[in-house]
Design a protein that fits this description.
The structure holds two protein chains of two kinds. By secondary structure, chain A is of the alpha+beta class. Helices cover 32% and strands 30% of the residues of chain A. Chain A has one domain (2-80): Mth169, Chain: A (2-Layer Sandwich), CATH 3.30.1280. Chain A has a three-stranded antiparallel β-sheet with strand order 2-1-3, covered by helices on one side. By secondary structure, chain B is α/β, with parallel strands linked by helices. Chain B starts with a strand and ends with a helix. Classes of the chains: A alpha+beta, B alpha/beta. Chain A: It is found in: Cytoplasm. Chain A: Its main location: cytoplasm.
């Protein structure tokens, strides 16, 4: 089965207080030099059958209508190469 | 004939009983609606209550928005049926695109629970006509993801068209843009509100009874229609 990964991130102009909290915690833990953190979501979809253009188009539709709220979030869709 | 106001129960709804109670105290007949039932059972208006429907999985309101009952609610809302979304219900209305913008994590990252002062900005909607514009009320507010956000041009449009229904006074509890606590659609029949008027309808349990006006407003709207 092929895997398609959908990454969802808050749009750059939307404040991400969770990412900020993570960023503020890093230096306290000794991880310095991180200027900014944005937190997002990753969906791994295991696709039955071939991942052709039609299948990808449907997944993009799912991402646009359901997995992401495009009022506040951007998404990317990519096919993950199968690990052999 | 008594006015029938439906209150939807999703898995994870919390405030459906309080909303039903508010409807009853306002003089209407509350009708329990179930998320899996498309049938609205001849109600004249619908309240989407607060809570954590579907565990807030994915995003608040994102899964509820595709429930069978919402298909009919969205269809009827577009035809003019009054719909009030409170807290999680407001999130459902934004996810349904019946209202613009979105509700995101409070800027403080803390869940906020307080008696909140509001100013009613638009007393012309189906749910606010028993108030007067500029009236100040206090009702409970409790949310973790109540921060209203939208594009600048959407915010400007909401302001220009008088579609900001209520604004936070004294304290902005969650970082909402322009202190927005509630908005309406262009027709004024769909209202989303982050604070909880249904918890301010009786002196015994509420800080005030100033929330009752939302429920008496819709009654008046329907009787006069």
């Amino acid at each position: 089965m092929a895997r398609v990964v959908v990454d969802v991130m808050l749009k750059p102009e939307i404040l991400d207080p969770q990412g900020q909290a993570v960023q503020r915690a890093l230096p306290r833990l000794g991880f310095t030099g991180i200027a900014d953190v944005r937190q997002g979501k990753r969906f791994e979809l295991e696709v039955e059958g071939p991942v052709d253009d039609a299948a990808l188009a449907r997944i993009r539709e799912a991402a646009e209508t359901f997995l992401a709220n495009t009022v506040i979030e951007d998404f990317t869709v990519r096919v993950e190469e199968a690990a052999k | 004939m008594t006015t029938r106001v439906g209150v939807v129960t999703f898995p994870g709804s919390l405030d459906d009983r309080d909303a039903q109670r508010a409807v009853r105290l306002a003089g209407a007949e509350p009708v329990a609606l179930w998320h899996r039932d498309k049938d609205l059972h001849q109600v004249d208006a619908v309240v989407l209550p607060g809570g954590f429907s579907y565990g807030d999985y994915l995003r608040c309101g994102a899964i509820s928005r595709f429930s069978p009952v919402m298909e009919t609610v969205i269809e009827q809302a577009k035809l003019g049926m009054p719909v009030l979304g409170i807290c999680n219900g407001f999130q459902v209305l934004c996810e349904s695109h019946l209202l613009p913008g979105a509700l995101t994590r409070n800027d403080s990252l803390h869940f906020v629970c307080r008696d909140q002062k509001l100013r009613i900005e638009n007393a012309g909607t189906a749910w606010t006509r028993d108030y007067s514009a500029g009236q100040e009320i206090v009702v409970p507010l409790k949310n973790g993801e109540g921060r209203f956000v939208a594009d600048e041009h959407v915010l400007d449009e909401l302001e220009a068209e008088g579609r900001v229904v209520a604004r936070y006074l004294d304290v902005n509890p969650n970082g909402s843009y322009r202190d927005i606590a509630g908005i309406t659609n262009a027709a004024g029949n769909v209202v989303g509100l982050m604070p909880h008027p249904e918890h301010a309808v009786e002196p015994l349990t509420g800080p005030t009874v100033e929330g009752l006006g939302f429920f008496t407003s819709v009654l008046k709207q329907l009787v006069n229609a």
